[in-house]
């Protein structure tokens, strides 16, 4: 589908963090009229202004918008929706999410006159922007929760196209499928699984008496090469590039580490996501002021692999440490 056949709604982006900034910049460069909604005086307001956007309060920003993208952290979306969006959005406007959590688990029940859609880039915001700037895109999945206007799908396609997602791939999904697979992916594999695997590998080597610096290079630094090969050509390409010895070790030892018991625990993680246990716990943790979240985070930040890594990365002068720190999944 070419861009010209798609609608061109005026857009209010509420939130200017990882996704918000990337969406706002890409959509503006794709020719959309974009306004940014933020609470006054917050840390990202100046950034949006420096990028040339008109910044209003969320309540003001959404008043004239045909489409409102909710790109604040998931845990504040309910409050933002109830206080600023629901009372101020135009009749028949479109409400867009980049993750289906609040709608899928019933924390937000959108007004009946609205179209409610999802466009979720399968990558962090910084990558959504970077890929767009070099003429490529991050694949996006989209879904329709409520199609009051009969035009909801066209709006989702227009938004995803404006993000650059159509250059990579667009796949239709549901709020349920996006929410549950996104949570599973980040918990079991991308963030949780990968960081725990790296930490465990580092600990085993250091406890066995090897130098922490060498353990760092071996289990963390070199992971980039492997992930880049996965990205370019899947496991096939990785196997083409590593030595025969590495391949044989992969075949005999990989399944010893990630065995059926790991898969069983992955199924348990998935079940907690599907039946709402994970989200209930997360909402309770957030409402209690994040006591465990802070504890877990502190423990990760103090792990020996972080201390060793900070020292070693100082020598990697090509690393762009000025880039946005926040690139969560
Ligand atoms: P961020 O944590 O980066 O969002 C921060 C932004 O939200 C800031 O501009 C902040 O403004 C604003 N904000 C925070 N609280 C409020 C509030 N009460 N009222 C108004 N604005 C507020 O979010 P992400 O970009 O990580 O996530 C946004 C959505 O995208 C989520 O639904 C997430 O699940 C989804 N998503 C995220 C991905 C990612 O890579 N991070 C990937 C795909 C989807 P201030 O300066 O005032 O603090
Ligand atoms: Mg090696
Ligand atoms: Mg996510």
List descriptors.
single chain; 329 residues; alpha/beta; Rossmann fold; 2 domains; 8-stranded mixed β-sheet; 16 helices; 8 strands; 11% strand; globular; binds NADPH dihydro-nicotinamide-adenine-dinucleotide phosphate; binds magnesium ion; magnesium; oxidoreductase; Ketol-acid reductoisomerase (NADP(+))
Structure, explained:
- The protein has an eight-stranded mixed sheet, with helices on both faces.
- The protein has two domains: 3-174, NAD(P)-binding Rossmann-like Domain (Rossmann fold), CATH 3.40.50.720; 184-314, no CATH class.
- It has helices at 18-29, 45-50, 58-61, 77-85, 101-104, 125-133, 152-163, 175-190, 192-207, 212-221, 223-241, 244-257, 260-274, 277-287, 291-302, 304-314; strands spanning 11-14, 34-37, 55-56, 67-70, 94-97, 115-121, 140-146, 170-172.
- It is 55% helix and 11% strand.
- The two termini are 28 Å apart.
- Helix 1 (18-29) links the parallel strand 1 and strand 2.
- It is globular.
- It is built from 16 helices and eight strands.
- It has 329 residues and is α/β, with parallel strands linked by helices.
- The structure holds NADPH dihydro-nicotinamide-adenine-dinucleotide phosphate (NDP) and magnesium ion (2 copies).
- One magnesium ion is lined by residues 99, 182, 186, 329.
- The site of NADPH dihydro-nicotinamide-adenine-dinucleotide phosphate (NDP) has 28 residues, from helix 1 and strand 6.
